[in-house]
Amino acid sequence: MTPRQRIGFIGGGNMTRSIIGGLITNEISPNLIKISDPDPGQRDRLVAQFGITATQENREVAEDADVVVLAVKPQALRKATGPIGDLVRDRNLLVISIAAGVRIEDISSWLGGHTAIVRVMPNPPALVGSGASALFAPPSITEAQRDTAESILRAVGITVWLTNEDQIDTVTALSGSGPAYFFYLMEAMEATACKLGLTPKMARLLTLETAIGAARLALESSEDLSSLRKRVTSPGGTTERAIEIFDQAETDKTIERAISSAAVRSRELADLLGGEV
Fold it and tell me: How many of the other CB atoms lie within 10 Å of CB of 214?
């Protein structure tokens, strides 16, 4: 990404806010950023917070940008892309879609056959700069365009490139939905600790810090997760007793079924969204 590239966002929601914040932290000038959103309150908040430019017209964003980020809800994407198709084609703009569940072939069709499109699956921790985004680009995307897309998403966390678009369904089920799985587990841990006598405040703090610490330990270790688990599980101890309960309940198989089901649902939603008129 070059220092003077102009970035336009169609949609001014939370993910747009997070990416803009990350870009400005990385010394991208607010003068290079423009957003469109139908909600005047949303526009005013972003202008006040970041000093960027805002409009209600999607075409104005496409007219002024080198890169257009599609950041509207999936159900609104077809309508949002309608007014800008000729502009992105004529100006050969890089289009980055963070709309969950909408395939590149559908976006391309709505943009009149435009092919310079990168599809991204970010996740909710991007809202605090700790996101994990998976990107896919068709062969028509140049190396420079890939670098630009990656630079924008790195403003809110780590990035990985997928080798085929179907992998996005797995990513959606893993990292896209994954924060909810961890919240579910932490919620149960916190509730159990309260039942066993801890105060809610104490239970929450210990649960959250344990989750953060475990993730950091895994990130900084060269060992795989199974080895780490075994290393902190003493034979005959309390952790082993808890793991035995998880094994008896076939928790690993439950997790496999849950993530697989989420991946199937991702494909179903993509079929539905692609068929919408």
Answer: 14
pLDDT band at 277 (very low <50, low <70, confident <90, very high): very low
Q: What is the C-alpha to C-alpha distance for residues 70 and 96, in angstroms, rounded to an integer?
A: 6
Q: Is 128 in the same domain as 202?
A: no
Sheet strands side by side (includes 131-136): 53-55, 33-36, 7-10, 67-70, 94-97, 117-121, 131-136, 157-161
Burial of 100 (0-12, 13-18, 19+ CB in 10 A): buried
Round to whole Å and give the CA distance between 273 and 277: 9
Give the closest residue to 10 by CA, choosing from 66, 55, 75. Answer: 55
Distance CA 66, CA 259 (A): 37
Q: How many residues does the chain have?
A: 277
Predicted local distance difference test score (pLDDT) of residue 171: 98
Question: How many CB atoms are closer than 10 A to CB 145?
Answer: 21
Do 184 and 142 lie in one domain? The reply is no
Residue 275 confidence class, pLDDT cut points 50, 70, 90: low
Give the residue among 57, 36, 142, 148 at the shortest CA–CA distance from 96.
148
Average pLDDT over the chain reads 96
Instruction: Determine the structural domain holding residue 210 and report its residue range.
Output: 176-269
Q: Is the pTM of this model over 0.90?
A: yes
Q: Which of 110, 140, 168 is the last residue of a domain?
A: 168
- Structural domain tally of the chain? 2
Which string of b and e fits 146-177 if b means at least 16 CB within 10 Å? Answer: eebbbbbbbbbbebeebeeeebbbbbbbbbbb
Q: Residue 68 above 90 pLDDT? A: yes
